């Protein structure tokens, strides 16, 4: 906890641990010391807090195969360089995802239960057990009376000497044969030397083997590190492990083997058995993967950070066995993976919760603008995140052809972007917000119950991604209603109720028809007895919510945190149009871009703008009034390098066929007469124009983009009389000229920077490199959406600047 005076003071210059980091992709690996040093220095200069190194597929001939002495030496060099620069250095404990590689044989590989279903007659059968694939292991066989899926019950068939002995029967029958089969999934996007099976996440022996072969050498080479990392769980189809019969008996108290067929057949008790089976898989993942890696990391004094959702069926509470909970995904009115992680972090007392941010931002690579990054970061903050891990920074040789290397599907967020001069201010503002959102404690008066039992069953006979099934089972209107009411929520599950006091739950929403374990039902009764409200009818939810501390405003998300002596609010406008907030008492408004504060009774949040609010007893000053001095329509020139030409505004580069593939900067210049005044003088480019959601139809729904056509494409540095006055990339697109202004003639210079997407559209080298990699190393990736790189681009000075006078 902290006082508002402490937080206000440190907001201006927050500590470095709150700086955004970047996932740093090493392709191949094909890296060298000089480029490692250059890129880490560029990260530090931009105000980033460090790198999470990730080892992925080749883009060129491999120089240091994964796990080789040369590779480990380069990892160590990168770590030492980062430390010297004051950067945090994190390591992914493997290549690609999920964990695995050449050290994973069939004994430690991820497995799936496979069923062979046969209709037979009355005669006895002896069926030899013949593995169809390497690593196949016979599990059990069952026979039932009836045909074509008609049997409602089955009995286990005896097996001896490698043969299934099906006895004779008096009618047509059905035989079910269960086989444990290696899923066949290999590590996705693996580096050279890291190819192989994905490991069995239910087996402690498999986890320890991965630690021995991969994690231990990596950590030894990289120390000291900020954390060791595990990406999201994508072990598709994995629902079996050799020890599951004994584990199930110990955990559930009855034998799974005689009833195993109920995973396939809807027998009388199949629902309860499937719940127990799913719960057992979740516990095996926790005990034999999460705990093993967390304990190993703790022995080395290093935090274990993980995106604990997906397959295997991790529960929300599985995060309690991690040191740092991490999510991904933006949708502040919904239940993205970030909410899965932030709920666990809050309930289990983790003060920092991170997120993989900008995963699919404004596809393809290099289309993302600083405004896109700011808008998506706000969405993550609104979902409870307070540390950003950018996705990401592609290692790329400086002396390579054309643009260099990019990751197959993500933003390329490095200093090759022409708009990079805006990066320092952008990352500085996100650092302030990350830090302030760690202060005090979150106020989330509503809980949403996770119907895990129903999710285990809803997966049917297929492996289940518990998070995704839960998200389908909780109606979208539930989180939306809570957020639109100006309130916040946590998810809570059957394990978390042992941590949360029922008296601390004003409102909990339980989806209609949810299956409740006995202990959970008793806890909900305790919530009611303590004066809380259990909502099972969605139509009553809005009326059951407590009043919001701030008046709700459409599209404005609120995060409420309680300090020792004050309430603090992060507010963000997620719309492409302005939104106005009013308050019954005076508020301090803290600006994350400038760190300036003002006392207000109301405030306008421009599109994708955020602020921090704290109640105050100070008296608000008069609202500043702005007056137009002039529109700067004079004689403009534009310079692309040494090429200078007269130009009229607005000016769009793509209208010139010679500039359609140009990525870089251009300098606009004119002379402007300014009055003698003691008022502030502002350069104003206008608010931009909202863009329809379908303006770029090829962009997938999970690819964030700010829905606005800006007045400058996409960022600009403003100079008056050779004094740098500021950088523009986001509404309200205004810069204060006062300190540099003088009465009479003034030299106005606007340096505009676009994106690298124009150059990407003409970069045949990238397509050739991908094709050559596929020939040499096999097809490990496809470049995402590069054919759309030039669509809907708007570069240049797209509005006539105005000079405003503000009292």
From TrEMBL:
Listed InterPro entries: Class_I_gatase-like (IPR029062), Galactose-bd-like_sf (IPR008979), Ulvan_degrading_GH (IPR053161)
Classification via Gene3D superfamilies: 3.40.50.880, Galactose-binding domain-like
Pfam families membership: Glyco_hydro_106 (PF17132)
Coiled coil: none
Highest rank taxon of the organism: Bacteria
PANTHER family, A to Z: DNA-BINDING PROTEIN (PUTATIVE SECRETED PROTEIN)-RELATED, SECRETED PROTEIN
Protein name, as recorded: Alpha-L-rhamnosidase-like protein
Taxonomic lineage from the root: Bacteria, Bacillati, Actinomycetota, Actinomycetes, Propionibacteriales
């Amino acid at each position: 906890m902290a006082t508002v005076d402490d937080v206000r003071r440190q907001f201006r210059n927050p500590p470095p641990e709150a700086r955004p980091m970047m996932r740093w992709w090493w392709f191949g690996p094909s890296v060298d010391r000089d480029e490692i040093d250059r890129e880490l220095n560029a990260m530090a200069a931009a105000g980033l807090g460090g790198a999470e190194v990730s080892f992925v597929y080749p883009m060129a001939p491999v120089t240091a195969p994964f796990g080789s002495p040369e590779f480990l030496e380069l990892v160590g060099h990168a770590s030492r360089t980062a430390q010297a620069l004051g950067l945090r250095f994190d390591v992914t404990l493997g290549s690609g995802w999920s964990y695995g590689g050449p050290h994973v044989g069939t004994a430690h590989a991820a497995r799936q239960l496979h069923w062979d279903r046969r209709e037979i007659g009355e005669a006895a059968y002896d069926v030899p057990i013949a593995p169809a694939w390497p690593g196949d292991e016979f599990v059990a066989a069952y026979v039932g009376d009836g045909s074509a899926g008609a049997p409602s019950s089955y009995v286990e068939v005896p097996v001896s000497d490698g043969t299934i002995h099906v006895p004779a029967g008096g009618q047509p029958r059905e035989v079910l044969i269960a086989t444990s089969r290696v899923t066949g999934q290999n590590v996705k996007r693996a580096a050279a030397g890291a190819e192989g099976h994905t490991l069995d996440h239910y087996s402690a022996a498999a986890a320890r083997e991965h630690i021995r072969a991969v994690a231990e050498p990596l950590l030894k080479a990289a120390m000291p590190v900020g954390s060791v990392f595990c990406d999201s769980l994508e072990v598709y189809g994995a629902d079996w492990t050799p020890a599951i019969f004994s584990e199930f008996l110990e955990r559930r108290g009855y034998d799974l083997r005689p009833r195993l067929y109920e995973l396939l057949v809807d027998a009388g008790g199949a629902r309860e058995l499937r719940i127990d089976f799913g719960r057992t898989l979740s516990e095996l993942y926790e005990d034999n993967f999460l705990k093993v890696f967390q304990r190993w990391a703790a022995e080395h004094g290093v935090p274990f950070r993980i995106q604990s959702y997906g397959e295997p069926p991790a529960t929300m509470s599985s995060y309690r066995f991690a040191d740092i909970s991490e999510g991904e995904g933006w949708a502040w009115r919904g239940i993205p993976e970030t909410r899965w992680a932030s709920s666990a972090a809050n309930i289990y007392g983790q003060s920092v919760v991170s997120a993989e941010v900008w995963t699919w931002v404004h596809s393809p690579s290099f289309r993302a603008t600083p405004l896109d990054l700011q808008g998506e970061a706000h969405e993550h903050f609104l979902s409870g995140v307070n540390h950003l891990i950018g996705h990401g920074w592609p290692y790329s040789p400086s002396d390579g052809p054309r643009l260099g290397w990019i990751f197959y599907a993500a933003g390329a967020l490095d200093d090759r972007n022409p708009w990079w001069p805006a990066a320092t201010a952008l990352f500085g503002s996100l650092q302030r917000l990350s830090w302030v959102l760690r202060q005090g404690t979150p106020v989330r008066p509503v809980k949403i119950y996770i119907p895990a039992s129903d999710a285990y069953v809803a997966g049917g006979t297929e492996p289940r991604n518990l998070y995704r099934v839960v998200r389908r089972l909780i109606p979208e209107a539930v989180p939306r209603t809570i957020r639109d009411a100006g309130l916040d929520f946590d998810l809570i599950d059957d394990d978390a109720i042992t941590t949360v006091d029922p008296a601390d739950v004003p409102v909990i929403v339980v989806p209609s028809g949810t299956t409740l374990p006995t202990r959970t039902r008793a806890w909900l009764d305790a919530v009611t007895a303590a004066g809380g409200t259990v909502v099972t009818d969605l139509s009553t939810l809005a009326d059951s919510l407590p009043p919001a501390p701030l008046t709700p405003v459409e599209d404005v998300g609120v995060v409420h945190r309680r300090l020792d002596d004050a309430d603090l609010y992060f507010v963000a406008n997620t719309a492409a149009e302005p939104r106005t907030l009013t308050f019954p008492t005076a508020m301090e408004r803290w600006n994350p871009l400038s760190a300036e504060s003002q006392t207000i009774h109301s405030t306008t949040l421009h599109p994708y703008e955020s602020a921090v609010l704290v109640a105050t007893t100070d008296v608000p000053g008069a609202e500043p009034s702005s007056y137009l001095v002039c529109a700067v329509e004079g004689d403009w020139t534009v310079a692309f390098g040494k090429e200078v030409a007269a130009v009229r505004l607005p000016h769009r580069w793509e209208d010139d066929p010679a500039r359609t593939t140009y990525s870089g900067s251009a300098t606009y210049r004119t002379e402007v007469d300014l009055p003698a005044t003691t008022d502030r003088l502002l350069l104003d480019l206008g608010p931009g124009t909202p863009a329809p959601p379908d303006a770029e139809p090829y962009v997938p729904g999970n690819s964030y983009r700010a829905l606005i056509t800006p007045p400058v494409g996409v960022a600009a540095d403003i100079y008056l009389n050779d004094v740098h006055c500021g950088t523009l990339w986001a509404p309200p697109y205004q810069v204060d000229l006062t300190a540099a202004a003088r009465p009479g003639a003034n030299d106005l210079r606007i340096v505009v920077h676009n994106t690298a997407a124009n150059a990407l559209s003409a970069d045949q080298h990238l397509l050739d490199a991908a094709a050559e990699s596929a020939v040499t190393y096999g097809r490990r990736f496809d470049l995402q959406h590069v054919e759309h790189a030039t669509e809907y681009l708007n570069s240049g000075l797209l509005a006539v600047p105005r000079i405003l006078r503000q009292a």
